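Priority: low. Protein: ATP synthase subunit b. Input follows.
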Amino acid sequence: MKALAKYSFMFIALTATAVAAESGAHHEPSIKDLMYPAINFAVLAGFLVWKLKKPMHEMFTKNATEVESLMNSAAQKNKDAEERLKNLTSKMNNLPAEVSKIQNDYESDVKTFAQTHGQETQDHIVRTERDFDKKLEGEKNELVEKLNEDLLNNVIAKTKQTINGNADMKTRATSKIVSELR
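Result:
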C-alpha cells in the first residue's frame, strides 16, 4: 500500500513538471515559471518530512546509540590496552631485576636440592648398611642355631649309638634316669 502511494505521488509530481515544462515552451522565461515546480517541491518535501520524520528519528537514535556504545567499548578497550602497556612497560623496565631474581632463585634451589639430595643419599646409605648388618646378623644367628642343632643331634645320635652298643652303659643310664625321676 505504501509503495502504491509513493509511485502515485511520484507520477503526479512528474506529470505536473512535464505539463509545466510544456507550457513554458511558448513564451519568454520568467520567475513565475518556477512557481509550480516550487509548490510541487514544497508539497513533496512536506510529505516526505511528515512520513519520514519518525523512521529517520528512530534510525538516527539507533545509530547514535550504536556509535555511543561503540565509543564506550573502544574507550574501555583503550583503557585496558593502556593498563596492559603500563604493566608490560614496568615489567620490561624491571627485566634485569626479574632475570637476576630468577637466577638467584634457581641457584638457591639447586643448592638446596644438592644438599637435600646429598643428605637423603647419606641417610639411605646408613639405613641400607644398618639393614644389611641386621640381615647379616640374623642369617649368622640362624646358621649358628642350625649348626648347634645339627651338633646336638649328632651328639645325641652318637650317644644313643654308644649306649645301645654297650649293655652295661644301657643299664646304668636307665637306672640314673629312673633315680632322677623319683
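The radius of gyration is 61 Å. The chain is about 90% helix and 0% strand.
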